[in-house]
RNA sequence: AGGACCAUAGCUCAGUUGGUUAGAGCGCCACGUUGACAUCGUGGAGGUCGGCGGUUCAAAUCCGCCUGGUCCUACCA
């Protein structure tokens, strides 16, 4: 083995080997355990969130695989409608100066497929780099033929059950992308805005109770005035009671619109009167429905003002009786321009009463960045009510469990207030809606045009055109758990692996995806899509900032693995920015944060870092320091293995029938191993990856390396040690390491496999050349191997060694200087332990001589430390700096006094003694005795030195 | 406005059902190259557990209020 750990070499090699050996496919034996990967965007690239998520899934899958489960990690990618279409549109625009309309639908879609072929392998390659043990043979893409069949089937069946309908509804419209988007794709941003108070003259000579000839309404959106179809007042409002049923004359337009009573109007706010624009505001739409007001749309699809408005009733039927004329002056104006003109015209007409500056929030499309417009359009919807009920129940009954549990509340809150789901998108890239229209506008929903004709008996002369729209991406991803397993066919995989075991996902897509999967899967499979949902937080940068290209704080997981030099990193972060003016600041920050670029750390270290930071339900501030620390941990494991191999390869490791003797240390480390195995297993069961990684780290570094390897040296290197003892220690070294590798493998697959290949033959666990750590049994703790007496003995030994080290440090004695040590005031047990551990003590504490002193009175002047009741003495003679030592002792005594004081106070409290459990009281008494003993020793020592 | 979550060492975080001398890693200080490892070893400094109040014999832990932060939902006519 090389002297230093070099991850890049071993990682790609092992992944290829595993894949070639078909290690990732289900074994076909054991209990099924399945995870469906949240499908990343096919043309996307791996970001920190993916890397984190993939690490968790892979750890679970590898762990369960080793436990003997029949594991399937289903892999695949998503076509990601809007995102991908926009990307290709931009690319074509940049390269050829053409729009998708120049190309036409078919040619454009061909181009998207081309782009998918070109770039679609990127993210899957990166997934491999992360070590993801997904079953590549089953890779799916949401636009595959098979998956499309599932999508069509679901659409058609839902339609046939009246759970899908088409209608003219108010939807979130993106004026840039020209498509409807869901509520969830809308991002609310705080803004400084204006609040205009307008006078709406009352018609027919009516006046208010206060004698005014107008009502005052306030709005942040004056341009929608053109579409007003009413003014609402609160039914309880005495000021306007007499006006309900009367009319106002809509300024600039001249339309007569009624004053209606509706609870939407808040008496406390403004004048108490609200203008109602049902076609351009979601609340007003509801008021319109309640009050039977017409809907008047005044916007084009670009959100510019129409020349002639479009009037509909609440069912979306045209209302020819309403005069659609709009003032010519505004026709074709963009909404924001129209706003200014309308405000100016109102002011000129003396109808502007007041302008307030207010802060409000505006809806933005999270893809386009444009202000979203509520717009009346024809769309397809899923009626969710009947689907939501069982979906809520599945979580209520615990059939699906969220981890951590508090996300269930978030889920319930959303599910109980669910609006019908708009599933049509005015895009080209996606699953085209399986609906056909004849020339009369009749709609036929079927799996194909042929089926539509057959079902509805339509002769060939009847021309049918397919709906232009495609489905919301989340409609298809909602079928992910069963669609990937071959549904609607009843495949063996579907029978075996559905429901899947656990979904690993970010809280940000609980609504987009998780909820919809539960609903659609419940409907079509009659069961839940997964039994548990592990919800993790967002990966943020070291300062807690969201990573984003525009902030220039993005870390690429691959760069953390392979390293990147500063110049390349700067270029990566500042290249092709939307706001190039930020480049300088980003460059500066990057140069100061990574003056040397980023070192390579390897996949295993990155994975271990993610796991160690995977704490429950909170965001992760990615810590470069920990990444380095865990890279060092890999190195530690590497070097410990080198030591073991150096001492075991070519030697007798106790596999044969020769007698074997286990030392105290051997028994101790085996005992501690059992505990570690329990801890790691328990932590994984609870999704506490931080605990699992911590337990492993502790055991490997602080016990196996720091103590056990050191304790093995006296046995292996001492000529006097017996062959049986050497065999026992070698065997323990090798077997414990082999168990460590199995325990660590799900978290750090590469380094463990590499080492295991060398170590396993010595432990007798490798079957042959082709064997892999991936399929070794998961370590199971054997409680019969817990050894408390060995543990106590080793703790004693560690205590004495640490005591001597302490004395060295305090007395400024060179670490290498051989010392003489006396032990005194101990029990027979202490004496026995000394006898049993003499060589270990000598080696680890660098002692020349260690003697038992029966009579404490004969102790020479010494530096002392306490181990239990026993004193550890290092005779100091004239080496002591009197003043310094007295000061140190005084400080120590003071510390003990405080501890003693605290406990005495406690024990002096009658209620404590009376009410606290006896065990607690006993424990306090024991502590008191300890502290007092320490104090006595310190005082004795002080007096001795003071007397010098 | 309502709700959720968070606040522990300079930094990133652990701390199961209340009883610990409050922990880890990184960073910091001192010392150290003998053959696993300087990507290391040994020792150390550093915290009134955000603030106030309450429950309790006992609170980092339970309850209330406050402050600060993150996020979600709603509103913003």
UniProtKB/TrEMBL annotation:
- On the tree of life, the source organism's domain of life is Bacteria
Give the chief site where it resides.
cytoplasm
Q: Where is this motif: 'HIGH' region?
A: 40-50
Enzyme Commission number(s) of this protein: 6.1.1.9
Compartments annotated for it: namely:
Cytoplasm
Domain called Aminoacyl-tRNA synthetase class Ia: residue spans: 14-623
Tell me which UniProt keywords the record has, alphabetically. Aminoacyl-tRNA synthetase, ATP-binding, Coiled coil, Cytoplasm, Ligase, Nucleotide-binding, Protein biosynthesis
Residues that coordinate or bind ATP: 549
Where is each Methionyl/Valyl/Leucyl/Isoleucyl-tRNA synthetase anticodon-binding domain found?
666-822
Q: Which GO terms describe its molecular function?
A: valine-tRNA ligase activity
- Record domain Valyl-tRNA synthetase tRNA-binding arm: where: 883-945
Q: Which InterPro entries match?
A: aa-tRNA-synth_I_CS (IPR001412), aa-tRNA-synth_Ia (IPR002300), Anticodon_Ia_Val (IPR033705), M/V/L/I-tRNA-synth_anticd-bd (IPR013155), Rossmann-like_a/b/a_fold (IPR014729), tRNA-bd_arm (IPR010978), tRNAsynth_Ia_anticodon-bd (IPR009080), Val-tRNA_synth_C_sf (IPR037118)
Reaction(s) catalysed by this chain, per the record, are: tRNA(Val) + L-valine + ATP = L-valyl-tRNA(Val) + AMP + diphosphate
Q: Which Pfam families match?
A: Anticodon_1 (PF08264), tRNA-synt_1 (PF00133), Val_tRNA-synt_C (PF10458)
User: Where does this chain carry the motif 'KMSKS' region?
Assistant: 546-550
Main role?
Answer: Catalyzes the attachment of valine to tRNA(Val). As ValRS can inadvertently accommodate and process structurally similar amino acids such as threonine, to avoid such errors, it has a 'posttransfer' editing activity that hydrolyzes mischarged Thr-tRNA(Val) in a tRNA-dependent manner.
Subunit-structure text? Monomer.
Provide the family line.
Belongs to the class-I aminoacyl-tRNA synthetase family. ValS type 1 subfamily.
UniProt remark on domains? The C-terminal coiled-coil domain is crucial for aminoacylation activity.
Q: PANTHER family from the entry?
A: VALINE--TRNA LIGASE, CHLOROPLASTIC_MITOCHONDRIAL 2, VALYL-TRNA SYNTHETASES
For this entry, the protein name equals: Valine--tRNA ligase
State the organism named in the record.
Halomonas gemina
């Amino acid at each position: 083995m090389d002297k230093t750990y070099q991850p890049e070499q071993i990682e790609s090699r092992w992944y290829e080997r595993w894949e070639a050996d078909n290690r990732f496919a289900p074994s076909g034996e054991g209990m099924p355990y399945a995870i469906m990967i949240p499908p990343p965007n096919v043309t996307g690239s791996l970001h920190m969130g993916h890397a984190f998520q993939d690490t968790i899934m892979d750890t679970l899958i590898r762990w369960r695989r080793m436990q003997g489960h029949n594991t399937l990690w289903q892999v695949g990618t998503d076509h990601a409608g809007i995102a991908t279409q926009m990307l290709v549109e931009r690319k074509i625009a940049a390269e050829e100066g053409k729009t998708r309309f120049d190309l036409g639908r078919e040619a454009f879609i061909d181009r998207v497929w081309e782009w998918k072929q070109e770039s679609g392998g990127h993210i899957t390659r990166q997934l491999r780099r992360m070590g993801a043990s997904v079953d590549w043979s089953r890779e799916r893409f949401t636009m595959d033929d098979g998956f499309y069949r599932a999508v069509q089937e679901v659409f058609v069946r839902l339609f046939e059950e009246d759970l899908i309908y088409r209608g003219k509804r108010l939807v979130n419209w993106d004026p840039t992308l020209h498509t409807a988007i869901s509520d969830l794709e809308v991002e609310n941003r705080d803004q400084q805005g204006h609040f205009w108070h307008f006078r709406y003259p009352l018609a027919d000579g009516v006046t208010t109770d206060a004698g005014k000839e107008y009502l005052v309404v306030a709005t942040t959106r004056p341009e929608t005035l053109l579409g007003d179809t009413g003014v609402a007042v609160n039914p309880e409002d005495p000021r306007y009671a007499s006006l309900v049923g009367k009319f106002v004359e809509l300024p600039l337009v001249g339309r007569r619109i009624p004053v209606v009573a509706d609870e939407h109007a808040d008496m406390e706010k403004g004048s108490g009167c609200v203008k109602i624009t049902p076609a351009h505001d979601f609340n007003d739409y509801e008021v319109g429905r309640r009050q039977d007001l017409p809907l008047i749309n005044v916007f084009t699809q670009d959100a510019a003002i129409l020349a002639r408005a479009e009037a509909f009733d609440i069912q979306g039927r045209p209302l020819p009786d309403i005069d659609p004329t709009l003032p010519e002056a505004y026709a074709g104006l963009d909404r924001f321009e129209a706003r200014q003109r309308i405000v100016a015209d109102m002011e000129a007409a003396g109808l502007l009463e007041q302008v307030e500056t207010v802060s409000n929030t505006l809806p933005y499309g999270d893809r386009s960045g444009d202000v979203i417009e509520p717009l009346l359009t024809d769309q397809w919807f899923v009626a969710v009510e009947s689907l939501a009920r069982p979906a809520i129940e599945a979580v209520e009954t615990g059939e699906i469990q969220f981890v951590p549990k508090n996300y269930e509340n978030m889920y319930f809150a959303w599910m109980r207030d669910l609006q019908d789901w708009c599933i049509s998108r005015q895009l080209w890239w996606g699953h085209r809606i399986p609906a056909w229209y004849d020339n009369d506008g009749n709609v036929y929903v079927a799996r194909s045009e042929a089926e539509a004709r057959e079902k509805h008996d339509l002769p060939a002369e009847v021309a049918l055109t397919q709906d232009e729209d495609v489905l919301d991406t989340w409609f298809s991803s909602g079928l992910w758990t069963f669609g990937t397993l071959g549904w609607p066919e009843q495949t063996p995989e579907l029978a075996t692996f559905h429901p899947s075991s656990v979904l690993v996902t970010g809280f940000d897509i609980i609504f987009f995806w998780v909820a919809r999967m539960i609903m659609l899967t419940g409907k079509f499979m009659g069961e839940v899509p997964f039994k548990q949902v592990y919800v993790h937080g967002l990966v943020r940068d070291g300062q807690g900032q969201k990573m984003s290209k525009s902030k220039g704080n993005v870390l690429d997981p691959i760069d953390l693995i392979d390293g990147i030099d500063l110049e390349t990193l700067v270029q990566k972060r500042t290249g092709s920015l939307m706001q190039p003016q930020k480049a300088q600041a980003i460059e500066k920050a990057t140069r100061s944060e990574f003056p040397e670029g980023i070192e390579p750390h390897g996949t295993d270290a990155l994975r271990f870092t993610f796991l160690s930071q995977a704490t429950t339900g909170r965001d992760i501030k990615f810590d470069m320091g920990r990444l380095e620390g865990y890279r060092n941990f890999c190195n530690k494991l590497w070097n410990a293995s080198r030591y073991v191999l150096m001492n075991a390869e070519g030697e007798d490791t106790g596999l044969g029938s020769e007698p074997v003797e286990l030392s105290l240390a051997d028994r101790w480390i085996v005992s501690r191993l059992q505990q570690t195995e329990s801890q790691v297993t328990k932590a994984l069961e609870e999704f506490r990856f931080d605990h699992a990684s911590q337990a492993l780290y502790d055991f490997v570094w602080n016990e196996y390396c720091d103590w056990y390897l050191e304790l093995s040296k006296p046995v292996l290197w001492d000529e006097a040690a017996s062959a049986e003892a050497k065999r026992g220690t070698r065997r323990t070294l090798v077997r414990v390491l082999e168990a460590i590798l199995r325990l660590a493998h799900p978290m750090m697959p590469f380094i463990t496999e590499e080492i295991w290949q060398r170590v396993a033959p010595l432990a007798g666990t490798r079957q042959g050349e082709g064997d892999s750590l991936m399929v070794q049994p998961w370590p199971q703790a054997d409680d019969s191997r817990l050894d408390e007496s060995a543990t106590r003995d080793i703790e004693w030994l560690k205590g004495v060694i640490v005591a001597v080290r302490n004395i060295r440090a305090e007395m400024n004695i060179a670490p290498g200087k051989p010392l003489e040590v006396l032990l005194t005031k101990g029990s027979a047990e202490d004496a026995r332990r000394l006898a049993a551990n003499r060589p270990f003590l000598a080696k680890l504490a660098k002692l020349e001589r260690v003697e038992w002193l029966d009579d404490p009175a004969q102790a020479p002047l010494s530096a002392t430390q306490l181990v239990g009741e026993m004193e550890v003495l290092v005779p100091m003679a004239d080496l002591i700096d009197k003043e310094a030592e007295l000061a140190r002792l005084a400080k120590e005594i003071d510390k003990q006094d405080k501890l003693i004081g605290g406990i005495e106070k406690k024990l002096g409290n009658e209620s404590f003694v009376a009410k606290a459990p006896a065990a607690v009281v006993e424990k306090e008494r024991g502590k008191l005795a300890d502290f007092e003993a320490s104090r006595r020793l310190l005082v004795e020592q002080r007096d001795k030195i003071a007397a010098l």
